[in-house]
Structures are given as C-alpha cells and as structure tokens.
Fold this sequence. Notes:
- By secondary structure, the protein is mainly α.
- It is 80% helix and 0% strand.
- α2 (11-45) packs across α5.
- The protein starts with a helix and ends with a helix.
- The mean pLDDT is 89.
Amino acid sequence: MNFWHFMVHNRRQVLDLTGEHLWLVGASIFLAVLVGIPLGILVTRVPRLNKVVLGSANIIQTIPSLALFGFLLPAPWIGERADRLAILALMLYALLPLIRNTYTGIRGVDPAVVEAGRGMGMTDRQLLFQVELPLALGVILAGIRVATVLCVGLATIAAAIGAGGLGEFIFRGLSMVNNDVILAGAVPAALLAILADWSLGWLERRLSPQ
C-alpha cells in the first residue's frame, strides 16, 4: 500500500487528526497572543524588564520539546490532560517571536510621529492604541506568522504524550518502520505550515502601513 492509497483508505482518521492538530495550534497561538503581545508592550514601557522577559522567553526556546513536556507533567490541572499540557508547552514556545516582534515594532515607530501625537495632547494610552500599535501591526503579524509555523511543526511532538494530532501517524510509522504512515502525518503537517505561512504573510502585507 503506497502513500496515496493509505491517505484514501484512512481519510476519516487523517481529517480527525488534522482537526486535533489545528485545535492544538489554534489554542496555543490564541493564548500566546493574549500573553505575548501585552508582555511586548510592557517591556517598551518598563525597559528594565527587557532582559528578564526576553531572557526568560529565550531560555524556554532552548529547552527540548519532550523535556518541556516532562517538566510540565507534574503541574496541577495542566498535567491531568495531555491536550492541556501540549497547548501550554506550545504557547510557551510561541512567546519569544511575539514578545520580540511587538517590542521591535513599537520601538521602531518614528519618534517624530510619537512626538507629534503628544503635541496634539494624546495620552500614553491613546498613543499606544491609535499610533504605535497600528504602525507596528505588520511587524507584530510577522511574529504571529513565525510563532504559528513553529507551533505547527512542534505540535507533531505532542503525540508523544497522547495529545493527538498528526504526530500520531509519524510516531506510529516510526514504530512500524513504515514510510507511508510517516508521510501521512508529515505531509499534511508540512502543508498546514505552508498554508499558515502564506495566509499570514498575505495578511501581514495587507495590514502593514504603507
């Protein structure tokens, strides 16, 4: 049985595992955006936190994914379900590009534009939401794009702890020494990463200030 025959005969399972994969990635990116963008804004307002926040996010990136799953396993409530554990781990991996790009985007806004806003009597909050964030939107979206593609790839490892996703085919294929089963997980995951990169890249170009 070749790869295409396997995909056709197991299309229901492929679709189910693809749905699980999308759920893991979508939930982790949503939570990462809720945490990472405010942290990026925070370090632009409180520069002394820059090294602590970005340093912590950098350290998380250096931890191997399976080791991070192991560190989080004893956590109350989180460790009770594999999908919660996987979502938290993926969220932590997605933080660095979000924090860094939010910080870089806001700091890259032309100081003359910010001063002009202050001269018009805008408060710091108004400057943030009406000037800085709109001008930094393209850079922030680039961070979301990088984080999403990263999570699509790392989510395949989540199958090792029983969280589901396309990684189940990959690990099953490795245990069976069956390339067709491995490709049944690897090819859809790669296509998801390409689709996410293309669609978010298109959105980034559309929303970037001209």
